[in-house]
Amino acid sequence: MAGMEYTLTGFDDFLERRRVVFVEPLPCTRVCGVCGVVPSRSLLLPCGHVLCQACKRQIVNGEQSCPIDGRQFAEAAVVSINFKQSELEQHRVFCVVGGRECSFAGRLGDLKEHVAGCSNDKVRCAQCQLSVLRSVAVQHCRQCDAKSAPQQIVSTMAIAVAVENIGSLKRDLEKIRQRASSEKVDNDAVLNDANSLMKRMTCLERELMQEGKASGERDLLLPAMKKSVLTYGPYRTFSKPGVFMTTWKFDEIYAGYSAVTKGKKEHVLSTDSGSLAGYEFKLDCKIQTQENEDVLLNFVLSLGDGELDNFLEWPFAKKVTVIVWHPRDERKDIRIPLSMEDPQMVKKPAPDSWNDSISTVAVTWEDIEFHGFVVNDAVYVNVELE
């Protein structure tokens, strides 16, 4: 899930101080240049920078200078800009409850109604304390291993909390990266935020080390009860620290299979492009038949022109892995490494264009269907960068 997250203020109660991820970035005139909040009323300074009212009130009379570039301004030269909620509601946003696990990407005006019925949020299992999708919570509970292993709950809870903290650190780190890549960056603010992250990481590391010592003692009591963890729902945790990951969903997979079994040589399922680690990607699913009538699936990846290309490393040199995930058992995931070495694949894309694509090795339809990879007529695929 790509997009830009903002905190809203000054609109209705549902949106007040709510953090919302917009599909497309909002105009800079709508965003406070100091705190990043999107207010219903902003103030445009003569130098071109925009402040919310809360930040503007912090400027003491007699020191009328822009906090970003230090330019002096007269109060009479400040222009008030109103952002009507009816206008804000026309922008497309992602679900604030389900996040990447939810496919909603609609008008902000439709978000409240969607949230009321969304079941793609994560809840904590009362047995094992792991996060699962609410839509599959009953299924998880029936198969949860923790019912017979209550001694593991304390350790599992600590791990689950640590995973959530790591996720929060990753989100904050991405915000710092976006701020650092902007044309007008406050180096002191970025440094302060980075130092704050370092302190949080140190505390988290200490907590994990303490829990590791305690869990080592508990493991002596449960040597025969260790099993591979099963996961439920359309999500995966990161395979290792320092990787980026996003998910693509290929709908109507059975229609594609039916098309190639009725004479069509090839059928392509396409999705919207997405951003990962700043790079713009497009992933397609190609279904085709062979002379022996076997049906094969290939996943085709290509790099395209993105908003952050000027701040990224070129040629593209990250390790790429395409993962066809199993909806219940992570051990059955199909991991397909890609070797992107062709200059026409890894060069910096030209404006409004896509580089040459690379295709994964083929996966048979028999494996996909027989082993239960299809979920509600869809196949989910993760792309992981390292």
TrEMBL record:
Keyword Ribosomal protein annotated:
no
Known Pfam families for this protein?
TRAF-mep_MATH, zf-C3HC4_3
InterPro entries in the record, alphabetically?
TRAF-like, TRAF1-6_MATH_dom, Znf_RING, Znf_RING/FYVE/PHD
SUPFAM superfamilies for the chain:
RING/U-box, TRAF domain-like
Q: What's one GO MF term for it?
A: zinc ion binding
Mind listing the GO biological process terms from this record?
Answer: regulation of canonical NF-kappaB signal transduction
Which residue range or ranges hold the RING-type domain? 32-69
Q: Which UniProt keywords apply?
A: Coiled coil, Metal-binding, Zinc, Zinc-finger
Residue stretches in coiled coil: 159-207
* Gene Ontology cellular component annotations, sorted alphabetically: cytoplasmic side of plasma membrane
What protein is this chain from? RING-type domain-containing protein
